Amino acid sequence: MLKRCTNNPIIKPAMVNPSFDGYHVMGTFNPGATVYNDEIILLMRTAENCEEEKGFINIPYYEFKNGTSNANILRIAENDPDLIRKDTRGFLYKGIDYLSTISHLRIARSEDGINFKVDDKPFIFPCIESESYGVEDARITKIGDTYYINYTAVSKDGYVTTLVTTKDFKTIERKGIIFPPLNKDITIFEEKVNGKYIALHRPDNHGFGLPSIWYADSPDMIHWGNHICLLRPDGSVYESQKIGGGAPPIKTEQGWLVIYHGKGDDSMYSLRLLLLDLEDPSKIIKQSKKPVLVPEEDYEKQGFFGNVVFSNGTVVKDNGEVYIYYGACDDTVCLAFSTIDDLLNMF
Q: Which of 94, 147, 211, 290 is the most exposed place for a label (fewest CB within 10 A)?
């Protein structure tokens, strides 16, 4: 129901330089998106592992000393008795957990929204212990001349949502953790409603129910309350496991337009639509009857984590055209097109 860009995937790992000597870019995906100085900016999750070495397991990690952080490589002999392979995603070594990959956030820039140039160095990378396993899946919310960037920070304590701000995409101001463990998929509205900042979030409710989309509001974007469970998975083949928010909602005359993701049977991810009340976004006006984007193309079905389309960034043009950026298979960045009117007609 969305028109895919014929250039897909528009950004591949081979287009991204490693952040550290000995690292290897495995995937670049799930970008936040915005416009700055007439350019479209993507803030991509960039996942790196280490180059292979015969007889050794090389693991990427960050060191934190004296208020600074540095990328490094843990080099372990394959037959070391203290090395335990947990699964494809991680290792246990001398009682300490390590991931096989670690992510940072990298900027890509474009004048036309299709052809991108990727910055040589990370924009946001692990700097504190709560980010020791990487930083992932940014969302960008512009209010006034300030860009609010929230992202998932991962560590041995689980995952949290952290907020930073920028005005120039050169420097950032750290605001700290705004949603504690285990909470992610935070999407912040691009204007206040009734004098408050609004967000959708996704706490992980182990033991009861399935992870769902929640509403919250805040006086300062730091302290969040008035939490309400907004939408639960419908149990269909598209939402049998969980759901979560996507890009910042788009304001339309009919309501706040939300593109959200669902994880269903066989761990397939798809995209679906919600419409929320303009004056009270804790109220759902309507929901699309079925997904508007499901994995169909080879680049969406085959990859590091197959059968995944995941969007956390959109750009709305002055003519109402919507550029929907999405990650495919935890590998690449892709693009789909629609318009505000067409999206509203999908309900």
A: 94
CATH H superfamily, domain 3-344: Glycosyl hydrolase domain; family 43 (2.115.10.20)
Other beta carbons within 10 Å of 336? 21
The DSSP bridge pattern shows strands 102-110 and 23-36 to be unpaired
Please indicate whether residue 67 or residue 303 has the higher confidence score (pLDDT).
303
Let me know: does 304 contact 27? Beta carbons within 8 Å: yes
Mean pLDDT of 203-211: 91
> Going by C-beta distance under 8 Å and a sequence separation of 6 or more, which residues neighbour residue 191?
143, 251
The percent of residues in the chain predicted with pLDDT above 90, rounded, is 96
Q: What is the DSSP string of 53-105?
A: BTTEEEEEEEEEETTEEEEEEEEEETT-TTEEEEETTEEEETTEEEES-EEEE
C-alpha–C-alpha distance, residues 76 and 60, integer Å: 11
CA distance 39 to 59: 36
Tell me if 262 sits within 8 A of 233, measured CB to CB: yes
CB-based burial of residue 225 (10 Å sphere; 0-12 exposed, 13-18 middle, 19+ buried)? exposed
| pLDDT of res. 169 | 98
Which sequence spans correspond to the domains of the chain? 3-344
Mean of pLDDT values over 82-103:
91
Tell me if 292 sits within 8 A of 271, measured CB to CB. yes
Within 10 Å of residue 144's Cβ, how many Cβ atoms?
Answer: 7
Q: In angstroms, what is the C-alpha Rg of the chain?
A: 20
Q: Are 272 and 238 in contact (CB under 8 A)?
A: yes
Sign of the Cα pseudo-torsion (129, 22, 87, 186, in order): positive
Alpha-carbon distance 279 to 292, whole Å?
A: 26
Element at 173 (helix H, strand E): strand 173-179
- Mean pLDDT over all residues of the chain? 97
Q: What pLDDT was estimated at residue 67? A: 87
The percent of residues in the chain predicted with pLDDT above 70, rounded, is 100
Token pair in block for residue 27? 């995937």
Neighbours of 281 (CB within 10 A): 23
Q: Spell out the alpha helix ranges (H) of the chain.
A: 298-301, 340-344
